[in-house]
Amino acid sequence: MPLALLALAIGAFGIGTTEFVIMGLLPEVAAGYGVSIPTAGLLVTGYALGVVLGAPLMTVLGTRVPRKRMLMLLMGLFVVGNVLSALAPAFGVMLAGRVVASLAHGAFFGIGAVVAAGLVAPERRAGAIAMMFTGLTVANVVGVPLGTLIGQHLGWRVTFLIVAALGVLGLLGIARLVPELPRPEGVRIRHELAAFRNVQVLLAMAMTVFGFGGVFAAITYITPMLTNVAGFADTSVTWLLVLFGLGMVAGNLVGGRFADRALMPMLYVSLGALALVLAAFTLTAHSKAGAAVTVALIGALGFATVPPLQKRVLDQASGAPTLASAVNIGAFNLGNALAAWLGGLVISAGLGWTAPNWVGAALAASALVLALVSGALERRTVRRAASGSRVVAGAAPSPATAPVHH
């Protein structure tokens, strides 16, 4: 694998850490600004909405900029946002810093996926995309627990300064290792927007929203579920989230490997298994061992869908993949926000701490149905093309080429 992928993975590691570490530091941040924890939760919501809006916005603004330079600008924006968060004198300023950092998120992964895919042979593209996303998954195993620990002992501001330093490292890595990539000739906004008229692109993005939403329906409320239902101590939750992160790393790499060989079958298996595991979590959550295994499986199956879904969008939007790729990153965050909201609704309705697992199972099953529809449409298109070519090949010869019988 090219060294340039390492630079992209470092940037992804920094972005993944800043996105998720805030969840572990909410009590400290809330106490620091004298606000309630639900108010501090706006730092999570604001970031997710920033990704959804920033992904298309930053990509559109960057269509006239070479991709390497755009990646460097995005990492610069990420560094500024995290420094602002670390030094913010008031809660509103920190929220602004989070939004600034989030604007870089979707476009970095969207453009980064296109760059990663372009660095290797076509048959290795999903593996290259997975290598970049490894930075995001490893952030959940190393960056988030470490960042939480540092924030609890040295202050949350130190955590965000360290994340900003990771951004600088990613920026320098991109500057040094990513080759100069010319801006694709003839790419216009109208050309990029045309990808959204392709039903397969829209189906892939809907799969992303529902499939990844299934994961976050359960994971958003994992702490009360594990402590109130499974009986874990509060201090054990960090290590259970490390298990979730290890599952993410494994699933991401497996998804990348198999998506290059059999993309749609990989989606059928991972989405189907994810729906079953989430449904089973309503039962396994009552046992410590069962809950621990299930948390790791949710991470693995959820992230096994990421490289194939991202590659599916790139393949179907070929010719104008950059905006579609970035919007699909926004779709992951839209899934997160939707699932967290639906999970909160069923808990508020008094259905219990495990109720979000049923929501997650339903979302993952919906994504599986969409994948089956997408596969069926693709097979029908291939059959039509094949029958059309047979008709042309079997057509009667024209008078000019017809054999002459004497």
Task: Chart the SSEs and their pairings.
Elements: H1 4-33, H2 37-40, H3 42-61, H4 67-87, H5 91-118, H6 125-154, H7 156-177, H8 189-193, H9 199-219, H10 222-230, H11 237-259, H12 263-284, H13 288-304, H14 306-316, H15 321-348, H16 355-393
Helix pairs in contact: 1-3, 1-5, 1-6, 1-7, 3-5, 3-15, 4-5, 4-7, 5-6, 5-15, 6-7, 6-11, 6-14, 9-12, 9-13, 9-14, 9-15, 9-16, 11-13, 11-14, 12-13, 12-14, 12-16, 14-15, 15-16
Subcellular location: Cell membrane
Protein name: MFS transporter
Membrane topology: Multi-pass membrane protein
Reading off the top of the CATH hierarchy, the class of the largest domain is best stated as Mainly Alpha
The run of helices and strands is: HHHHHHHHHHHHHHHH
Topology-level CATH name of the largest domain:
Growth Hormone, Chain: A
Net shape: globular
> How would a crystallographer describe the biggest sheet?
none
